[in-house]
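We store amino acids, tokens; thus:
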Amino acid sequence: MVKSLLSYYNNIIRIIYNNISGTIYYYILLYIMKSIVIAVFIKEDLIQKQIDNILQLEKLEEYQIIFIQDNIKNSIKYNNPDCKLKWENVKKIIRTNLHKFSNCELYQLDNNYHPSGTCQRGLDYAFNTKKNLFSIFLEDDVFLAKNALHWFNYFYSNNMLSWNKYKFITAESIFYDTQNMDITPKKEILNQIKAEISKNNYQKYYYEINNFLTSSIFATTKEIWNTDIRKIRGSMNGECTLNDVIQKNKWKSIFPVVPFAKDIGMTHDDGWSVAWNGKNGVREIKNTYLLSDEFETPDEYIILPENFDKSVLYHHLNQDSSITEVITAINGNRAEDATAAPATKEANEAAAAEKFISPIFNQIK
């Protein structure tokens, strides 16, 4: 009942915004005109899971949901009957589920614009047609923790993206990720990692600032998007070009330490990377093994101190790893055997980064 009322008033205020201008309305809508843009194409096997994932989000009633589907016309999949059928089925599944949302629509493109072009058109639609002031973009193979919108709301409501050089918020983390789909931590190891996070509450509260941006999920404001950024991100391979621009201009992106999102589609048969590079040619593999909603949602977040030893956040998760090795990695202590991490903080951090940060992150940095 409460969610229905919130959604009702949300829609009323959207109508006011579209018809009446003024400073007072701007500051009211600063906290209301928000959207989630989900780029979809032909991943028929994931779309219902993605819909269900979005529906379980806390504070979902504050957001307008926009599914944007790239057109199969003129795509590399166009002459494949199976792909055409998948494209139609994705569309049907979304339409069948629209009634489950309080404010949701399917926006279909008139041609094929590739992932970067779809991203640009989706956010253009959210900001400039639907008049949202803040938007989260994600691809159809990215799944969110149920408290992910708390994370985004915190930084948006505190006007972090109005600070100099701060341009984006993401929900992925470079930590708690094996970088290998064939390596998943054993149950007892995972339980030990969770216990350490819970014991040292500061880890789940932390965020960090990086000079790059993830391509599969990010958030920004209308003011930031409606600059050269929209055209840069919308160009072919725009995610890479944008990261070059971010580095050149020393812009900043806000990252969580404990992830609020996981990308599961890097090697999906119907994904862009596999279509162009083949499964063996995909450069970036992710395997995020825990999400923030396994812990209590913080009321605030604290920036990771500059002197924090990040090596404690990388974990030795090979199948033959023992709990002792994992706890050693978490605590940043030097193990006594020949496979131990380097003794110095600098060497320890460098070795951990080289082993566990994905190739794409290494290239960007």
The CA atoms of residues 123 and 225 lie 8 Å apart. The chain is about 40% helix and 15% strand. The two ends are 48 Å apart (CA to CA). The mean pLDDT is 79.
